[in-house]
Amino acid sequence: MRAHKGQSTVEYILLVTAVVAVIILFTTTKDSTFQNRLTSVFNNATQDMLNVASRLQDNAASSSTPAN
Prior knowledge:
By secondary structure, the protein is mainly α.
């Protein structure tokens, strides 16, 4: 039984190493498509969060104003 646990640990380490190597390869290549897409995703997510924060702030300001 112990050999199976050691084998699965080694397989897990190899898999994680391969994934990290691929990520490093794609992100360090100059002008890579992967890097451009990742930057675009982060920029879009940031803009969406700013839009939601602005709407929440506007709603909070309008709800705190007393009605006539």
